[in-house]
Amino acid sequence: MSTEVQAGEVMAGSPQVHDESELARASQVGSDLINNVARVVRGKPDQIELAATVLLGGGHLLIEDVPGVGKTILARALAISIGGKFSRIQGTPDLMPADVTGTNVYRRESEEFVFHPGPVFANVVLVDEINRATPRTQSALLEAMEEGQVTADGLGYGLPEPFCLLATENPVEYHGTYPLPEGQLDRFMAAISIGYPDREAEKEVLTSQAHGHPIEELESVCSLEDLVSARVAVRAVYTAPAIVDYVVSICDATRRHPSISIGASPRGSLALLHAAQARAIIKGRDYVVPDDVKVMAVSVLGHRIVLSQGAQSIGAGRNLIHQILTSVPVPTDSGR
Amino acid sequence: MANRLVDAFRRVNRPPPPEPSIALRVAVAICSLIPITAVAAGDLISGAVVWAGFVGVPLGYGFSWWRREHEDWWMKLILTFLLMAAFGGFIFSIVRVGVASVSETQEPLAALFIWVQLLHSFDVKGRRDLSFSIAAAVAMIAVGAVVALDAGYGIYVFTFIPAVASALYISRRCELRDLAGAGSAFASHRTSALDPGPRRVPQRALGTVRSAAVLAIIAAILGVAIFTFMPRMKSGKTLNLPFSVKAQTGLSSGGLRVENPGIDEGGSGNGERTSVNGGYFGFANSMDLSVRSRPTDEIVMRVRTDRPAFWRGMAYAEYTGRTWTAEDQGLRRIDGDAPLNIPETTGTIAGSSLSEEQIQTFYVEQDQPNLIFAAQYPSRVYFPARGLRQDSNGSLRTPVSVDAETVYSVISRRPNVDLEMLQVGDEPPYSTGLDPNSSRYPQKMESFLGVPDTVPQRVRDLAVSLTADKTTTLEKVQAVESWLAENTEYTLDIPPLPDGSDAVDQFLFVDKKGFCEQIATAEAILLRLAGVPTRVVTGYTPGRRGVFSGVFDVRGSDAHAWTEVFFPRFGWIEMDPTTHVPRAEENPSRFSDIARWAKEAAGKLPNWVRAPFRGAARIAGSPRNLAVALALVITSVVVGIYLVRLSRRRRRETGDATPNWHLQVLGRLVGAAEPLGVGWHRGQTTSEFIEPVRAGPLAGLPEGELLNQIGEALDKDLFSRDGLDEHSRLDTERGVDEIVQLLEKVAQDEPQPV
Lengths: 336, 754
Known about the structure:
The structure holds two protein chains of two kinds. Chain A is built from 13 helices and eleven strands. Chain A is an alpha/beta fold. Chain A has a single domain (7-208, 221-327), classed as Rossmann fold (3-Layer(aba) Sandwich), CATH 3.40.50.300. The longest helix of chain A has 19 residues, at 20-38. In chain B, the strands form six sheets. Chain B has a seven-stranded antiparallel sheet with strand order 9-11-14-10-4-19-18, with no helix packed on it. A four-stranded antiparallel sheet of chain B has the order 5-17-20-21. Chain B has a three-stranded antiparallel sheet with strand order 3-7-6, with no helix packed on it. The A-B interface holds A 13, 238, 240, 242-243, 285-291, 294, 325-334, 336 and B 180, 183-184, 187, 657-660, 662-663, 666, 681-688, 715-721, 723.
């Protein structure tokens, strides 16, 4: 599955004939996912919604936070809910690209090399602590994420569809980490943080896990086909010309902001638009409103910008995006 | 209800935000100047007031623009004082002159309106003040229409309409600009307060009906109140009726003779008379029945009065067989300045029960003979000359020429006698002064019975046979008139009178066709032969009353001759035998057929269809009028377009967003929420604005859900594929009404911002 979509298609206002029932089904898939994940991840409805939105929007998700707040649980719950093939890769400095993509193995019986697919050949791939893997391994993942295929010994192998990569990273530990390069960060549709639960949610977590983890009992709530058709429906969500204009204005503002040295790329604008479409579906609408764009912009753009001064962090980027969002005028005209 | 009234009053009295748009001010200034021009054209107002308006109003608008950001309480004080003074002047001038009818308040009212416009122009800071100016201008255009003399006034109306339209359009754009601007002000992190001024979105359908009904009721109540409490003056007070002060050319005869500029008397002295510019031969010292003339169709004068009447000019008593001769000996001098009281003449009705007053003002459009045309029995004349001459038949001659643009007024005491009263008979009681035994009874009554010997016997026989069995005057008149109606025909196209023949005989027995002169003469002579005193008078028929102006337009072709019959009980009563005489077939020609057909077809159209065409034809009739009208209309359209474009360009330059329904509705909500401390800025989405309102002022109220739905509807209108349908928009507006009212109530209960 590729995140690549012809830009012209979207600009023309998604000309696909949209079907009422398809929209309802896609919306149902979204809410099922959210409800299912919420059974195991307590007190974080916004983050769950963001994660589900990215999944529906056809993107990859980066979860960045301190250890122990449930990053991995969130990613696992999402993967289990989808019900496709799930695999997990633990990022370590000695992880080789071939450990991820798979290798050619010589079979004596047939006297030939047979490709042995690695863990990346799954519908949902969880890459835990991705910034602990070496740049070489990271770039192997990069190809998988962007092109939906891996290359081994000069031969390309297509990844299953849908393909979704969930990565977690730990911002506190800097020893032995290889920070993700901008190019790779850009390939994640959104980056979210989970944050500590509030007191009530934390108490709930403690009581619910008294007799084993609830994720053990989690079952899938939608089929792969459901997810694929939901993703198609997302692309059909109507984006008014004013919305496209709004998206471009926000991204443009990141490029002009004095505290930002590198703003959001056009890939960023595209990702923002798709994310907004996915949120519209989850909210049960067949059209994007500025709220969709605004809510998704922080997660979609926060990790894409490079600050010109001060410590580079996703948190600082998000603050700047917040600032920009209050200054860019929300469209008050449809532009039709 | 009372609360809401007080609240509305407070809202109205809140000073409006200053209006920066120059285009709007220019447009409104033009709107104010057009009615001033229109009223000035009515020629009622003194030039000083008009010029004060012309100079003062633009000055005032300039001043208001310059000081628009300032409070200027001293200016308000001065203006209030001056306004009171103007109003006092208005009341004073009404009381001083004494007003007998509504129409006489026109002049002071028009002047008052000019003053109001002028003074108000110095204090138009906000858009609301400017809209008051437009309203005042509309009222003034109406005043001008009342004052107007003819349909040419349409020029001003047609100029005014585009001017007002563009002013209203620009005003609306400015209002929407403010709406959009309120947001951009926030976006640029300024803390200026949102304008809570008039931002009510006009409600469709029901709302319109409701406000129209309220307005109608208010207008009705006010109207009744005004008419109930307005002081009404009794008639008969000294009136100051309009007459021109223009110096006329003195006449050599000093008013002893009738001099008609429409007749060339023939310098050679051979008595050959020719008509100049279609002048009527009936306005002279004698009326020659052998002369044929066709007066023109041009307007010769206009008469402002409340009802139609024959405008009597000349009276003839002596008939010679071919000519009627007026008295030119022993004319009575009436000296003094206007107004002149006119003494009674032979057979004038006295006593108010038998007469009624009619006030007339004549606006002379073409040079006239030196006669005072007026309804029968003029009693008071306002004419710009010292002294008049009066003959014993009551016609008035002026010592000066009556040129075009002369204005004079006459109060007549017309006989208030109807057919029923005439039927009573000729026995006493006689009206005062008409008793044959009284010393005041006209001694010369036999001169109204004189019939020359040249009148053939068959005429005399006819008179006797018609009236043999008739006893009363009225019966005789009716007998003669019905015989004329049955046996003669009306036409302007009759052969010349042969030498030596009697005009009456020729008409009754030879031609059997004639026009008003022949018909009136025949009636007069037949009645004289039956022993009824008569005389023939000439003048004008009432003319056609202007649809808008209410003024009678008298044309050259309205010149007419009719009969005055002496009734012993009542005196001289006007009789028009011509109306009873049927029209003769005109010479048939193909073109006249077409013309007649067209005329008949046009006659079948309802009056309101024909009126504008007539007005247009009248304007188009004069190339100068047409050119002026076209130039004015084109200029005002061009200026209007220019102003609209100017305001658009300025808006583009300031980069304001194009406002729409979404913004209007949002603007109302913002305006209502603002006093409660919930603001809105351009960087906020609808829900981001709505959420604090729900959590704040509306916390715990069920209307929070409604507000949410409004927010969703607003977004759906803008961003969904098809937008919001009209029905949903209406629903949303209704919801907004509810929310705004609720918010206003919350704001009232809790005056301090949260």
